[in-house]
Amino acid sequence: MIAIWWVAVVMALGVWWTVWQLVRYPGGWAYAFHEEHREARKALEEARDVVRELRRSARREKWQALAEVKRAEWAYRRQVRHAESKLERLSTPHRGARVEQLGEVTLYEHTVLISDDEVPLAGLHVRFELAHSTHVSYVYLTQPDGRERMERYDSKEFPEDAVRRFSVQIQNAAVAANRLQEQRAGNIRALQAELREARTATQPMEEAQERLEKTRARHDADVKLPQARAALDDARHVWQDLTGRRPL
Fold first, then answer.
1. Residues 204, 199: Cα–Cα separation, whole Å
2. I need a labelling partner for 124 at 20 to 30 A (CA). Which of 50, 72, 87, 219 fits?
3. Nearest partner of 208 among 110, 72, 111, judged by Cα
């Protein structure tokens, strides 16, 4: 069964090659296969080969030059996106890790969450007060713009020492946030400069584009391909005069 299958494949290939030879060298069996017309077939095929090779070479050079442009554009976009991403991560506020919670106030590394209201720690001032007559502790949180928040803690549920310690935690976290903000401001300026530099670093793209344009112009001005096409056209005329059929 396998042998029969291989015989069928070989026969199909033989039929295909025969038909293809008749198409490439039209005019009849003798012109496509007989030794008498071998030189005519060779001249036509050589003219075709020259045109084919010149076209292939031009396409390859243009494709390589275009690929260089694409690589330069991709590298440029990647560098800009990388700088933008770093700047965005540093510029976007985030809470950080959860540190402590007391009542409705939750302390994070970079913010204080009061119920659902988030207050940045940077620039925050904390003040503790104790009302002895009512056994109530108060924590005042003053924001940089002067707005103040007050949280009330009943000593039956929240002992004074616990509230004091929590106030100190918030104050220390605010001091750390102030230092971090100063560092972040310097880092942001550096990243902004890096982003500006990345956006202006277009020279590799421009050079690649210039090489592509020169390659295209060189091939457009090259006379080899038009000459080869003219030679192929002459070879087709010769074949047509010989057989009465014009080949492709």
1. 12
2. 87
3. 72
Q: What is the pLDDT of residues 190-230, one digit of tens each?
A: 989 999 999 999 999 999 999 999 998 988 888 888 888 88
Question: What's the predicted TM-score (pTM) here?
Answer: 0.64
As a whole number of angstroms, the distance between CA 66 and CA 222 comes to 19
Structure confidence by residue, pLDDT tens digits, 163-196: 889 999 999 988 888 888 888 888 888 989 999 9
Residue 123: name the closest of 191, 189, 171, 63 by CA.
Answer: 171
Query: Greatest CA span in the chain, whole angstroms?
Result: 126
CB 115 within 8 A of CB 142: no
* 3-class secondary structure, 105: strand
The two tokens of residue 149 are 């928040």
Nearest alpha carbon to residue 93 among 109, 104, 106, 105: 109
